[in-house]
Structure formats: C-alpha cells, structure tokens
Amino acid sequence: MMLTALGLMSGTSLDGVDVALIETDGRQVRAFGPSGYRPYSPAERNLLRQALSEAANLPQRDARPGILPQAERVVTRAHAEAVAAFVAQNRMRPEDIDIVGFHGQTVLHRPERRLTVQIGDAPALAKAIHIPVMHDFRAADVEAGGQGAPLVPVYHRALAQSLDREGPIVVVNIGGVSNITYIDGNDTLIACDTGPGNALLDDFMYRTMNQAFDAEGKFAALGTADEAWIARALELPFFASPPPKSLDRNDFAALKLGDVLPADGAATLTAFTAAAIARVISLLPRRPQSWIVCGGGARNLTMLRMLRERVGTATVEAAETLGWASDAIEAQAFGFLAARGLKGLPLSYPATTGVPMPMTGGVIARP
Ligand SMILES: Nc1ncnc2c1ncn2[C@@H]1O[C@H](COP(=O)(O)OP(=O)(O)OP(=O)(O)O)[C@@H](O)[C@H]1O
Ligand SMILES: CC(=O)N[C@H]1[C@@H]2OC[C@@H](O2)[C@@H](O)[C@@H]1O[C@H](C)C(=O)O
C-alpha cells in the first residue's frame, strides 16, 4: 500500500527543520512531493548548542536535566510550526498525510554505551498537528548493539535504483557530520559516518568571522590547507576502523587549528572533511567509480573540488544535478523510514549500523 509520508529532520548542523513529502510503500518512491524549511532563530540555535553541551554526560536517554526540557519544547514547537506552515502552503489537510517521520534533535550519540538521545516530544507533536508521528528511529538499533546511525542508507539505495551510473556508487551526505552509503549492485549495503561534515567549519566560521557557514566555500577558496595538520588528524583511530561506525557531532571538537589566518583555517577544515570522506575508500570492498554528494555540503564548491582531487578518476556530482532535491533528502528519508517502520521492514542492517540482524524500528505516537 502506498502511503503519503511527511519526513522531518533537524540535523547536527542545528540550522533548522527540513520538511519533505513523499509517496512510498517503504520500498520504492512513487512520487516526490514538495519540501519546506523552518530555520531556527539565532536564540533557538544558541539554546540547542547549549543543550548539546549539557547533554554530554547524560546517563540515560530519557533524562532531561538543566536546559534540556526547554530545548525539547523549542524543538517540538519548531517542528509543529514547520508542519503547520507546510500543510497551509501546499493547501493540504492533516488527513491527507498518513504518517509523519520525526527524527528529533540528536543531543548525544554514544552507541558504545548503548545510548543515543534525540529530543522532541512526539506525542505532543502528534496532538498539535493531528497526524500520527513515528519517532525514536535509532533506539532499537542501539539497544541491539548497533551504531544507531546512519539510517539514510536504505533511502539512498531506493534513490539509486533509478540511476544509470557505473558502480560502485557512493552517496555522500555532508551535513554536520558526513556519512556514506556504498552500493555495488550486490545486496549488501555498506554504510558509515566518515568524519566531520560542516560542523567544525561552521563553528570556526562563527568564531572567527561571525558567519553561520562558508557560503559556496568562497572563503576557504582564498586560503591554503595545512596538509600536515590534516594528515595528523587522520591518524585518529576512528578513521582506520572499518564500517559500520558512527559519530557524535562533537567528537572532533577537541581538534584545534592553532593560530592560523581565518581563510587558511577554513581551507584546512574543508579539506579535512574531503580527506576524511576519501579515507573511507581503502575500507570499502571495491573502489567507487561514482560519488553523489548531498546535504548542505554539496553547495560548498570548494569542498566538492577538494573531494574530486582525492578520489582519483571517479566522478563527483552534486545530487541536485541528478534531479535529487539535495537539501530535502534527509527529510524524505525519515518519511521513507516511517513508512518502513509502519510495515515492519528493516531500517538498518549488519553492514550499515552493525546490528546483529536486520532491524526495524520507530515508535508511533497517535494524535
Ligand atoms: N550555500 C551554501 N554554501 C556552503 N555551505 C552550505 C550552504 N548551504 C548550507 N551549507 C552547509 O550545510 C549545512 C547544513 O547542511 P544539512 O542541512 O545537510 O545538515 P544537517 O541535516 O543539519 O546535518 P546532518 O546530515 O549531520 O544531520 C550548513 O550548516 C552549512 O555548513
Ligand atoms: C546520531 C545522529 O543523529 N547522527 C546523524 C549525524 O548526521 C549525519 C550523520 O551523523 C548520520 O549518522 C546521522 O544522520 C543521518 C540522517 C542518518 O542517520 O543517516
């Protein structure tokens, strides 16, 4: 049965809530609907940054000390507003949507402690928007000993079905953190987080230039990357360990650039993201021939160039050039995952998150 599913994603970049509608049976996508975006205000973003730092020592996933209850209310309200605006703009009624996939905001990800925490009150959201809401997508995977991330690979696979590209294909998502899905025509999907995405660069741009991000990568293009710094950073054990593996947004926050010119710092962090993505090549069964880049990082032309320089003769394309709605892919993915969860289909596999067996997930909250 086809479902109309609305996906909601608030990613590790803390930039806002992405909204996207798809029609799917959880295996294929029949149609892409419209998408939308509700940015966080600067005050909301600061609150979320503080929530992430206060969440660093959370003992369990339902603990909400300090500022977290306030942050959770803000996340829930922002999502309710995002859905209300989306429904109104597209002249829809709540009953036109079968299911909402609500990722929430990750504030802590520690799979080695069987802990991953996404804030956002799904029952309150369901009541506010009058649509059933599926949430807690990562919990069952982590409880079963998996990484709980990345979860978009099943969606990347569905998108790649219609592609005419020489394999193996890698779909790269460059959000706050970067992750890849490796598709080589066999049944086995391989996936992992690869390292930083935009988060280190965004934090650096904010600190040094008071800008939220490096638009189109123009600032990094003015600088020179410190290759020796990057080579040292890539010696961290994370980069050599094979997939599956995942990261917390702040896992690399302790890496310090030292005293550098801002443009050189931006160039170094941009090249670090590209080099960390390319580092995964030697951990994959075969060398990818085609790289498809999505997420906000696909708009960073310097990052794309630096990735191209590191993947040999393989092609590197922004997902947008294939007609994929790059910014909406993660939100679409959570609509797709909600449909899969409703049908009891797997969200993750041993080679995507390290779960012992294919695993479904998601918890439903009804209005
Ligand atoms: N025009 C642009 N030029 C350069 N970078 C951009 C541009 N637009 C967005 N970005 C980068 O993309 C980021 C947002 O990416 P995205 O929305 O994919 O992240 P996310 O979904 O929050 O993260 P994650 O995938 O880790 O959950 C911004 O913080 C910024 O760094
Ligand atoms: C714990 C968590 O929220 N992880 C995010 C984060 O952002 C990118 C990367 O790290 C990925 O593993 C994941 O998000 C995407 C949507 C995923 O699960 O596929």
Automatic annotation (TrEMBL):
The GO biological-process annotations, alphabetized, read as: 1,6-anhydro-N-acetyl-beta-muramic acid catabolic process; amino sugar metabolic process; peptidoglycan turnover
SUPFAM superfamilies (UniProt xref)? Actin-like ATPase domain (SSF53067)
Under the heading Pfam families, the entry gives: AnmK (PF03702)
Please name the InterPro entries in this protein's record: Anhydro_N_Ac-Mur_kinase, ATPase_NBD
Gene3D superfamilies in the record: 3.30.420.40
Listed EC numbers: 2.7.1.170
Residues in coiled coil: none
Taxonomy, superkingdom: Bacteria
* This protein's pathway: Cell wall biogenesis; peptidoglycan recycling; Amino-sugar metabolism; 1,6-anhydro-N-acetylmuramate degradation
The record's GO molecular-function terms, alphabetically, read: ATP binding; kinase activity; phosphotransferase activity, alcohol group as acceptor
The entry marks the following residues as binding ATP, namely 11-18
Which UniProt keyword terms apply here?
Answer: ATP-binding, Carbohydrate metabolism, Kinase, Nucleotide-binding, Transferase
- Catalytic activity from the UniProt record: 1,6-anhydro-N-acetyl-beta-muramate + ATP + H2O = N-acetyl-D-muramate 6-phosphate + ADP + H(+)
Q: To which protein family does this belong?
A: Belongs to the anhydro-N-acetylmuramic acid kinase family.
Q: Which NCBIfam families match?
A: PRK09585.1-5
Q: Read off the HAMAP family from this record.
A: AnhMurNAc_kinase (MF_01270)
Q: What does this protein do?
A: Catalyzes the specific phosphorylation of 1,6-anhydro-N-acetylmuramic acid (anhMurNAc) with the simultaneous cleavage of the 1,6-anhydro ring, generating MurNAc-6-P. Is required for the utilization of anhMurNAc either imported from the medium or derived from its own cell wall murein, and thus plays a role in cell wall recycling.
Protein's recorded name: Anhydro-N-acetylmuramic acid kinase
Q: Which organism is it from?
A: Bradyrhizobium guangzhouense
